[in-house]
Design brief:
Layout: H1 2-23, E1 38-43, E2 46-51, H2 54-63, E3 68-69, H3 71-82, H4 91-101, H5 107-111, H6 114-131, E4 136-138, H7 139-155, H8 163-175, H9 177-185, H10 197-221, H11 230-236, H12 248-278, H13 281-295, H14 309-321, E5 328-332, E6 336-338, E7 341-343, E8 348-351, H15 353-356, H16 376-380, H17 400-417, E9 418-422, E10 430-433, E11 435-438, E12 443-448
Parallel strand pairs: 2-8
Antiparallel strand pairs: 1-2, 3-5, 4-12, 5-8, 6-7, 9-12, 10-11
Helix pairs in contact: 1-9, 3-9, 6-7, 6-17, 7-12, 8-10, 10-12, 12-14, 12-17
């Protein structure tokens, strides 16, 4: 009888965890993660370890990086769309791809891309002005279009995509990924249907067709007389061990990775930040004062972006409260020791970034929006792994400098010329669908500012 009761309780616990994962994986996190530095649990007899302490996170993701991979759950959720691109590849395949792409994201190269970032922001500003202050705007849709335009203009110079179809395709895919995560928890076969799966597959096929057509057209044209873009780097890449080039399918995997992940994360970070700024007039005023001082009242130019230190603090604080990628998941490929405890091979290790960013042991009044947390003095006093909006370790986001420059450029243009007023009394709840999306639209009224 005791065994029966114990089994029943465990079944109910697992059922609740699965239901929460489908609904919103953030709700499936054990409550103790907000209090403990590390938490060991099991689900269906498989070890799951949540790591919240920055020093342990560093030991895990840096010191033990070679013993980890992305794991079955992540591959099951993302590989059907992204194939074996940079985000999902492992081992030698990942190293080769990262080496091929890395030159694009050197600081000097990113600086040369700021002008098109500003142009995309100006186009967004003009669209918002055209709406007028009486129309409610779903700001996450506007930022998504803007960051997608940036990715295409800077990474795929001569591409023409159906922007709305591509953005909607990404949305259709990520909305159903929680079902994939839940199915993996119980070991269900990957072919098993679930809500949204057919729509996601259709969207993925449409996106891949558009990208495949662009790859084929570029191959046919041959080398361009221009600064190499992402596709040029992928076409010319050679595996240092075998000398082979990437296939069109592998190139498409990487282009889709950058188009999807590259625009989605920055767009969400911007949308949440604009909502926060709209709710804090003092922060908005200080940011605008900095923008006008640095630009001397003129248009935002590439040379200004590095001087907008407070605006960067504002965006960082937005990403602290609403990290676009709120969770890192890894699987142990061999046993190792962490915090004096042996981690078994096959264990799942989770770094809940959203929890770390609001952990009471790491942040004073963690729910409060305060860009001063990212002043140079406060940043120096804080463990570097207390704030990880772009991940950590060898697999830290390759585009982090690009994304920060892009976000500051877009915020500078928008906040200089527009006022943002949230239409909702409180922001919608965040929901994790791989990325951190608002449960309902971030509705805002946007009006033009008079510059004095």
């Amino acid at each position: 009888m005791t065994n029966f009761v114990s089994t029943l309780r465990e079944t109910r616990r697992v059922a609740r965890a699965i239901a929460a994962t489908i609904r919103n994986p953030l709700e499936a996190l054990p409550p103790a993660v907000y209090e403990e530095p590390i938490l060991h649990t099991r689900i269906l007899k498989r070890a799951m370890i949540h790591v919240m302490d920055p020093a342990l996170i560093q030991e895990l993701l840096v010191g033990n990086a070679a013993r980890l991979d992305k794991g079955r759950a992540v591959r099951r959720a993302l590989s059907p769309a992204l194939g074996d691109g940079l985000l999902t590849a492992e081992g030698a395949s990942w190293r080769w791809q990262r080496q091929a792409i890395a030159p694009l994201f050197r600081p000097d190269r990113v600086q040369a891309l700021v002008a098109p970032m500003i142009k995309a922001a100006e186009d967004c500003r003009d669209r918002l002005r055209a709406h007028g202050p009486d129309r409610l705007v779903a700001i996450e849709q506007e930022t998504a279009r803007t960051t997608f335009d940036v990715i295409v203009e800077t990474m795929l110079a001569d591409a023409t995509f159906d922007t709305d179809t591509m953005i909607q395709g990404v949305s259709n895919y990520v909305r159903q990924t929680n079902w994939s995560l839940a199915s993996n928890m119980v070991g269900a076969p990957q072919w098993l249907p679930h809500p949204g799966k057919r729509r996601a597959e259709k969207s993925n096929a449409i996106m891949r067709r558009q990208i495949n057509a662009h790859v084929a057209a570029r191959r046919a044209k041959g080398a361009r007389d221009a600064t190499p873009d992402l596709l040029d780097h992928l076409l010319s890449a050679r595996d240092p061990e075998t000398g082979r080039a990437m296939t069109d399918s592998e190139i498409t995997d990487n282009l889709l990775t950058f188009l999807a992940a590259g625009h989605e994360t920055t767009a969400l970070g911007l949308a949440w930040t604009l909502d926060l700024v709209g709710r804090h007039p003092g922060v908005a005023a200080r940011a605008r004062d900095e923008i006008l001082r640095v630009t001397d009242g003129g248009p935002v130019a590439p040379r200004h972006i590095a001087q907008l230190g407070y605006l960067k603090q504002v965006f960082n604080e937005g990403m602290r409260l609403y990290p676009p990628a709120p969770m890192i998941s890894r699987q142990a490929q061999e046993a190792f020791t962490l915090d004096g405890v042996t981690i078994e091979a096959g264990s799942t290790l989770v770094v809940p970034i959203g929890v770390v960013h609001r952990h009471s042991a790491l942040w004073t009044d963690p729910e409060r929006f305060d860009p001063e947390r990212f002043s140079p003095e406060q940043e120096k006093a804080r463990h570097r792994y207390a704030f990880m909006p772009f991940g950590a370790g060898p697999r830290v986001c390759i585009g982090n400098i690009f994304a920060l420059s892009e976000a500051v450029a877009i915020l500078a243009v928008l906040l200089r010329d527009l006022d943002f007023a949230p239409a909702l009394a409180v922001p919608p709840r965040p929901r994790m669908d791989i990325t951190l999306r608002p449960e309902s639209s971030l509705l805002m009224r946007v009006s033009s500012r008079r510059l004095h």
